[in-house]
């Protein structure tokens, strides 16, 4: 670890931020809260304690205000439906900013504005933005309280929906204040829906503002979010803190904050493996995290479904935690046949957002059951029938539920020191080219694979669904610093690990399609077959064949027992087409050139080595 920090301190800004140091202790927290209140002018300030009585009070109040619908407790106890404004349904990457002193520290993949200029702009935007509303103070811990890899934060927000969600997604409440009182530092996050109320003005069901700002100040470890109430825009512990701010913290301190699920895989002999996997938004993390293997004798247990913090340990292994305490998962496509674990997790105590409402007071979304109910109220609150010709649930509709409710949480999911990682997977949606699974030859090759991931765009953020874009480490929207420095940091982390104890790295792709445009691989529970091969590689028991892009399974040895695949599906799933990979290499060169001299030499070398292998092929 020492090695990593030294390298970084040479390049990082010499001046430590004064604001971070000043934010210690309860008095500093109170002063900060008072300053935000003086700027945003709420009618009242409420400090949240994280108790069940508090969340009951808030849900009652939101139901009375028409902002939540209580679901029929017979089917779904203590559960609620929220319908967002139709223009506030996903993360807004075009309005997400990384504000570092120097533009090159934010890098070419982030929107950048100078901190002083952004602060001046935000002062105007937030002035009076909470008028007529309550400002809640939400103290939270990312990771188990007091854990070795854990970090504290405080969110102030004028959205009670955000408070409830933060209570599910984090360890929230008074116990965090004790740690702050003891002098633990905390990340400061400010959230306003940007819809002040005039005296006597009636509120709407989902207040928000057409102008949005999702602003990170990594140098002072602050987040300012304005105008949106939805997901990662509003639950600031999640993408804003646990990825954008935390990735910048990790770079300074020698650890990693990644867009990764975390699972424990156990083989029929009882040997366990911990696996982290980075897939872009809506590309299958929640599904893999909750997998029920189709292969007899194998077991998957869940540690996390979206974010992992990883740190080299004194033993030379990479250790990881899930900093969250809940799931904010994609609803559509979640059903008995795809993710029965999630369906069971959602039995109650769940907030659903933008799914459809059944006539019996329960919820529904595309993929929950094969046959839709004859009548629903859709996510916009309009009547819906199967012949309506539009989805009943928004494609980015989600559930918010405590991790503890998942029936297959691993016993070590809250281990204060985390768990040792045996394998790291990178994936994405690729209709062509990328095989079902391929193993990197070493850490550096693995970093190259992570850095060059591309994926077809999903509904998790604004933009055109299906468009292929680079999403390095699945962190394109979430890296709080220069993406090329992120790759250099990954290389440095590799150096801090013992070479024979570093996780093995793999690329996976559940989404390859045949000539008929259909998925070649059944996915979901059958992905256990890929995990089986990965475990076999870690244990040194499964064979592999070298290819130009890495190590592939031996097709005849790959476990497809009991699986009914079309004749040449396996060949197609593992096919490596030299001409397409030449084109892929050209595109990678173009992509890399966007990072100029900041591109780590090791990655240029990896690309050159790939070209050499392609030339020889
Ligand atoms: P974020 O929460 O946005 O970060 O996404 P995520 O990566 O957790 O995505 P999630 O697991 O919710 O998957 C979203 C979509 O991928 C759903 O429509 C799933 O049905 C689909 N999906 C997941 N796994 C598979 C698979 O193995 N095969 C196929 N074909 N689709 C899958
Ligand atoms: C994602 O988009 O990757 C999510 C949902 O996990 S959000 O929390 O809104 O970012
Ligand atoms: Mn995500």
Automatic annotation (TrEMBL):
Cofactor binding, note field: Binds 1 Mn(2+) ion per subunit.
Recorded GO MF terms: GTP binding; kinase activity; manganese ion binding; phosphoenolpyruvate carboxykinase (GTP) activity
Domain Phosphoenolpyruvate carboxykinase GTP-utilising N-terminal: 32-251
Biological processes per GO annotation: cellular response to glucose stimulus; gluconeogenesis; glycerol biosynthetic process from pyruvate; oxaloacetate metabolic process; propionate catabolic process; response to lipid; response to starvation
Residue ranges annotated for the Phosphoenolpyruvate carboxykinase C-terminal P-loop domain, each copy included: 255-611
Entry cofactors: Mn(2+)
Top-rank EC class of the record's enzyme: lyase
SUPFAM superfamilies: PEP carboxykinase N-terminal domain, PEP carboxykinase-like
GO cellular component: cytosol
Enzyme active site: 283
Annotated pathway: Carbohydrate biosynthesis; gluconeogenesis
Catalysed reactions, as listed in the record: oxaloacetate + GTP = phosphoenolpyruvate + GDP + CO2
Positions of GTP binding: 282-287, 398, 429, 524-527
Subcellular location, record wording: Cytoplasm
Subunit structure: Monomer.
Protein family membership: Belongs to the phosphoenolpyruvate carboxykinase [GTP] family.
This protein's name: Phosphoenolpyruvate carboxykinase [GTP]
Source organism of the structure: Labedella populi
């Amino acid at each position: 670890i020492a090695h990593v920090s030294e390298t970084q301190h040479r390049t990082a800004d010499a001046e430590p931020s004064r604001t971070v140091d000043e934010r210690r202790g309860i008095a500093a927290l109170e002063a900060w809260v008072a300053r935000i209140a003086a700027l945003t002018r709420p009618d009242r300030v409420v400090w949240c304690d994280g108790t069940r009585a508090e969340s009951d009070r808030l849900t009652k109040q939101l139901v009375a205000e028409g902002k939540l619908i209580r679901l029929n407790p017979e089917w779904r106890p203590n559960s609620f439906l929220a319908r967002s404004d139709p223009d506030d349904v996903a993360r807004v990457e075009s309005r997400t900013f990384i504000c570092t002193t120097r533009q090159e520290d934010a890098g070419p993949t982030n929107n950048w504005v100078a901190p002083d200029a952004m602060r001046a702009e935000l002062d105007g935007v937030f002035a009076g933005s909470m008028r007529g509303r309550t400002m809640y103070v939400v103290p939270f811990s990312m990771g188990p309280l007091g854990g070795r890899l854990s970090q504290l934060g405080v969110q102030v927000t004028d959205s009670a929906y955000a408070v409830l969600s933060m209570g599910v997604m984090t360890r929230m409440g008074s116990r965090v204040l004790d740690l702050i009182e003891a002098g633990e530092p905390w990340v400061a996050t400010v959230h306003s829906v940007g819809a002040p109320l005039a005296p006597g003005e009636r509120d709407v069901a989902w207040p928000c503002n057409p102008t949005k700002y999702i602003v990170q100040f990594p140098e002072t470890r602050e987040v300012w979010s304005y105008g949106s109430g939805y997901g990662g825009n509003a639950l600031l512990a999640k993408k804003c803190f646990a990825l954008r701010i935390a990735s910048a913290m990790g770079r300074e301190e020698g650890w990693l904050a990644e867009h990764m699920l975390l699972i424990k895989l156990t083989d029929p002999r009882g040997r366990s493996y911990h696996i982290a996997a980075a897939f872009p938004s809506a590309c299958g993390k929640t599904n893999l995290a909750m997998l029920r293997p189709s292969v007899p004798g194998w077991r998957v247990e869940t540690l996390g479904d979206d974010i992992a913090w990883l740190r080299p340990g004194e033993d030379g292994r990479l250790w990881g935690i899930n900093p969250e305490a809940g799931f904010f998962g994609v609803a559509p496509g979640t059903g008995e046949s795809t993710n029965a674990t999630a369906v069971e997790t959602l039995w109650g105590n769940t907030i659903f957002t933008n799914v459809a409402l059944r006539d019996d007071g329960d919820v529904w979304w595309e993929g929950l059951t094969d046959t839709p109910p004859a009548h629903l109220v859709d996510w916009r609150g309009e009547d819906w029938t199967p012949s309506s010709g539009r989805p009943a649930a928004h494609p980015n509709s989600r559930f918010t539920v405590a991790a503890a409710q998942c029936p297959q949480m691993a016993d070590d999911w809250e281990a204060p020191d985390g768990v040792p990682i045996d394998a790291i997977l990178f994936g994405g949606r690729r209709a062509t080219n990328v095989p079902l699974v391929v193993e990197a030859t070493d850490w550096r090759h693995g970093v190259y694979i992570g850095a060059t991931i591309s994926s077809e765009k999903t509904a998790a953020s604004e933009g055109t669904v299906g468009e292929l874009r680079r999403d390095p480490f699945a962190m394109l929207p979430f890296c709080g610093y220069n993406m090329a420095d992120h790759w250099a940091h990954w290389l440095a982390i590799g150096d801090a690990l013992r070479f024979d104890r570093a996780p093995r790295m793999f690329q996976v792709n559940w989404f390859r399609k045949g000539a008929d445009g259909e998925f070649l691989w059944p996915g979901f529970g059958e992905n256990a077959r890929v995990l089986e091969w990965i475990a076999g590689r870690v244990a040194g028991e499964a064979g592999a064949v070298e290819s130009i892009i890495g190590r592939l399974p031996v097709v005849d040895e790959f476990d497809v027992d009991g699986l009914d695949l079309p004749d040449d599906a396996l060949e197609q799933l593992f096919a490596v087409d030299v001409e397409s990979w030449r084109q892929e290499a050209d595109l990678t060169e173009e992509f890399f050139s966007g990072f100029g001299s900041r591109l780590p030499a090791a990655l240029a070398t990896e690309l050159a080595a790939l070209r050499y292998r392609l030339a020889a092929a």
